[in-house]
């Protein structure tokens, strides 16, 4: 089944404790992206990747890191999480960019206390 | 920069009512436009898309027409069902850029 998977689905952590949210797709897509969803703000793009070893900042990259060492994986790293990073996070992928449909993962709900 | 403006929700309709959710945009060049739907507890799914002016995207009874002159991409459905209750997001990708811009989402509730 074609899908985007994220882990964990739910995470409660404390300020400053490094964490990684994994994202994997099995569709051989080139383009992958991370979003955060907050009430009243919709989805905002954090980082995106056009292909392996090619990443760039979205609209809200501060406090986040990403890497793209393999085509299928695009982990999101929070080196020192803070409470303002409490949010619902989505990973997405598409065949290329531009007119292509994005396929979204199920989401990761992160709470930073 | 690019931006997408959607009508404020929530929108509450009775079953079989006509639906319009407004979406306007500002963008560099000629973007591709999308409507995504998010059902409770799930990720977003593509509902429909249009890639150039005057294109009409359609799916599951929903339609939206790319209007360049009014920079709009309003979502319509002639007769909504309870199962259409969800959050709807308008989005764009500007040509030559890689960033995706979403609107804030409009929650639709359909009551029997």
Protein architecture, described:
- The complex is a heterodimer of chains A (113) and B (112).
- By secondary structure, chain A is an all-beta fold.
- Chain A contains no helices and 11 strands.
- Chain A has strands spanning 4-7, 10-13, 19-25, 31-38, 42-51, 54-57, 65-66, 76-78, 87-94, 103-104, 108-112.
- In chain A, the strands form 2 sheets. In chain A, strands 2, 4, 5, 6, 9, 10 and 11 form a 7-stranded mixed beta sheet that branches. Chain A has a 4-stranded antiparallel beta sheet with strand order 1-3-8-7, with no helix packed on it.
- In chain A, strand 4 and strand 5 (42-51) form a beta hairpin.
- In chain A, 38% of the residues are buried.
- Chain B has strands at residues 3-6, 11-14, 19-21, 23-26, 32-38, 44-50, 56-59, 62-65, 75-77, 86-93, 100-102, 106-111.
- Chains A and B meet through strand 4 and strand 5 of A and strand 5, strand 6, strand 10 and strand 11 of B.
SSE inventory with pairings:
The complex is a heterodimer of chains A (113) and B (112).
Chain A: E1 4-7, E2 10-13, E3 19-25, E4 31-38, E5 42-51, E6 54-57, E7 65-66, E8 76-78, E9 87-94, E10 103-104, E11 108-112
Chain B: E1 3-6, E2 11-14, E3 19-21, E4 23-26, E5 32-38, E6 44-50, E7 56-59, E8 62-65, E9 75-77, E10 86-93, E11 100-102, E12 106-111
Parallel strand pairs in B: 2-12
Antiparallel strand pairs in B: 1-4, 3-9, 5-6, 5-10, 7-8, 8-9, 10-11, 10-12
Distance between the termini of chain A: 36 Å
**Count of strand segments of chain B:** 12
Helical stretch count of chain A?
Answer: 0
Determine the mean pLDDT of chain B.
Answer: 93
Strand/helix succession of chain A? EEEEEEEEEEE
Identify the biggest protein-protein contact and residues per side.
A-B, 26 and 23 residues
What portion of residues of chain B belong to β-strands? Answer: over 45%
Radius of gyration computed on alpha carbons of chain A: 13 Å
**Biggest sheet architecture of chain A:** 7 strands, mixed
Give the overall form of chain A: globular
Compressed to H and E, one letter per element, the order of chain B equals EEEEEEEEEEEE
Low-confidence stretches of chain B: none
The Rg value of chain B, from CA coordinates, equals 13 Å
How many DSSP-defined strands of chain A?
11
Number of H- or I-type helical stretches of chain B: 0
Largest sheet of chain B: 6 strands, mixed
Instruction: Specify the structural class of chain B.
Output: mainly beta
